[in-house]
């Protein structure tokens, strides 16, 4: 067995890492073959605690191309040879950037990157220091069309959707998509998707038990996830009561620079909004529900009542040429399903969604026509043959280790690979 070398990187150049809650870059080009890429793998941890850093960014310096770490801080980064002379930058909220040449990273084999927490003096003066939390957020919302992209962009995205019933995973869908985003103008209807999405490749496990269909929505959940972009769709609470509850403080942001945190904590509710000194909203973390009492409930056909127990959402934006673009978005829904006649709990479910934008095309992005546009119905019904060669060199959120519960649950009968391949016909 070949031994894999692991090199520890803990220089004074650290990386901004993301302090995240949840598990989340383009034209219609053919898949890049493995021969045209170099793969760098490794793990990102906190320098002081050794804890893995989930959703830290791994990207090419000054290029709109990258990936993020998984919940265990692990990553596989497939780098096209055209970036072979570049630098890989590890970055995330709260840490100092760390970079390494692509060529050196490839030679090292497995990287262990230890990122140093930022240590700025938080009493440094920002232009926003005299603003209240409410005033700061109102200015940030008013400046969306200044700070965010107002020209079309084509985003190359990786989408993952997992379903769990009674603490057992019952379904996995992964898709490579192209997303055409025209701009960040205020939408006329915040419930109507403005992005145009094309499905490039799809892989999924075998259909979950048909008896579970009534508990999981059958329409396109990826489109629902895109609508969770609070910034693009202006879906912030704007009531006076909400603004009066907001507080703010200065914290360590990106690459050891200060950033403003606007936050609200209440029973069963938390909201954190990170706003930079240009009034750009860089990251939002939202949680609602204590898991004991339902947030809201509604009836579904078949005498079933859905009680939504907990919702978690997270979104982060990346900067390119002075404008902000979506980097990733994730959501988790925890539900309890009751029989309306008997009042008995039938099932508990959990759904996790994540969308990683791993490449941006800002120069003459290709429009997604109706003939390429993804269908509105569920991805599980949009059959595509499994393209193993494509996935071998496509940047995803790295799958968790083999002893991960998701894989164990889903491989009770046959392996994931065999399930993916079962849809080739």
How would you explain this protein's 3D organization?
By secondary structure, the chain is mainly beta. The protein folds into 2 domains: about 5-115, Carboxypeptidase-like, regulatory domain (Immunoglobulin-like), CATH 2.60.40; about 135-420, no CATH class. About 15% of the residues lie in helices and about 40% in strands. The protein has helices at about 100-110, 135-140, 145, 220-225, 230-235, 240-245, 390, 405-410, 415-420; strands at about 5-10, 35-45, 55-60, 65-70, 75-80, 85-90, 100, 110-115, 155-165, 170-180, 195-205, 245-250, 260-265, 270-275, 280-290, 295-300, 305-320, 325-340, 345-360. The strands form 3 sheets. Strands 9, 10, 11, 12, 13, 14, 15, 16, 17, 18 and 19 form an 11-stranded antiparallel β-sheet that branches. Strands 1-8-2-5 form a 4-stranded mixed β-sheet. Strands 4-3-6-7 form a 4-stranded antiparallel β-sheet. Strand 16 (about 295-300) and strand 17 (about 305-320) form a beta hairpin. The chain is globular and about 60 Å long.
Class inferred from helices and paired strands: mainly beta
Report the C-alpha radius of gyration, rounded.
22 Å
Number of helices: 9
Whole-number total of structural domains: 2
Question: What share of residues are in beta strands?
Answer: 35-45%
> What helical percentage do the residues reach?
10-25%
Mean pLDDT level:
86
Q: Describe the global form.
A: globular
